Amino acid sequence: MREFAISIYLLGFKLLFSIFKLFPLKNKVTFLISFSENFFYIYEEMEKQNINIQTIFLCNPRTFPIFEKMGVPTYLLETTDTTQAIKNIYHLATSKHIIADNYYGLLAATKFKRAVTCTQIWHSVGAIKQFGALDPTNSTRTAAANKRFHKVYNRFDQFVIGSDFMGDIFKKAMPAPNATFLKTGVPRTDFFFNEARHEEARQYFHRINPFLSNKKIILYAPTFRNDEKSNDIIPLDLKKMHTAFRDDYILIVKRHPASIWKLDEMTRMPYFGFLFDYSNDPYVNDLLVLADILITDYSSLPMEFIFRKKKMIFYAYDLESYQLEAGLWEDYESSVPGPVVRDTDEVIEAVLDAEIDHSQFDDYAKKWIQYCDGKSSERLVKKLFAND
């Protein structure tokens, strides 16, 4: 029934797109936005370079409030407002540039004019877990669904990459034989070369939470797991963490946007002044600047925290099951730049261990941020709009 509903939706989308495709292309760029950081830097650079082009933001509900404040036409991509949904299709059919940061099934119902360029910028610098064509869950999907996925991949004319290694991953994950790679680096990484913004982030957090000014910060930022749609329990022993670190550290939690578990007031109360939940803060890079230690798992955040050259701990308590379910691009334990731990006791031990292997950081940086030097947005905008 779900596939039937999707096919009906895409049939209607395709019909309207075909009608609007008869209209002349406009000097317009439409962004398909799931995450904010890359597009924030692209648009800021467009203004710096005085790019004279109409801009449309099509957002999910989480990013909509961020871009609505920027004074640019901003709409919900998935909306129950029929008039707005039709307008969204119109913008997609009449834009010279389409820039997406995720997989968007609606692209399967499009066939852009030759003059249109569709760019995949992706929402992270790299990837530890498999996605796209090599997502292990594809085996449980229908043939129609997998066919639709490949139609979407073939809509992309170019991929923005931060390294050749990520380019090789895209070749496997989103096979688009005629696509090219823009070796500009990833726009969101420009943040790590902007000390003024770092200081602004620190001052903001210290102002709203004076506790953060006096102790070292541990940031726990795990990725999403499918069972978190129903499981709302944080997988750390907070009592042990509090006992071990309350005198010297503060623990900040930033859950994945798709996860439902949260630290409600009753959970936080015994750990007042030690435990803080910043899951609703939209800018994770601001928290990376604040952190002295990152605890994560299969997230791509280490590929950005590597700029800071600070300790990372990989809390992979479910490594075997996660690898079977989600799939990983490499051998996990040998590829991450820090200790792999399995329970809270090992997390505590790793935090207290002063040793850091900086040679791991250098190798990791070469693999993932090869082209990221603080000028990624500048190079990308020049390439995207060179002929406009």
Mind telling me the CATH class of the largest domain?
Alpha Beta
Weakly predicted, low-confidence segments: none
**Named CATH topology of the largest domain:** Rossmann fold
C-alpha end-to-end distance: 44 Å
* Total domain count: 2
Helix/strand-derived category reads alpha/beta
SSE topology string: HEHEHEHEEHEHEHEHEHEHEHEHHEHHH
CATH homologous superfamily placement of the largest domain:
CDP-glycerol glycerophosphotransferase, N-terminal domain
Determine the strand fraction and express it as a percent band. 5-15%
**What is the topology, as strand order, of the major beta sheet?**
3-2-1-4-5-6-7
Q: State the shape.
A: globular
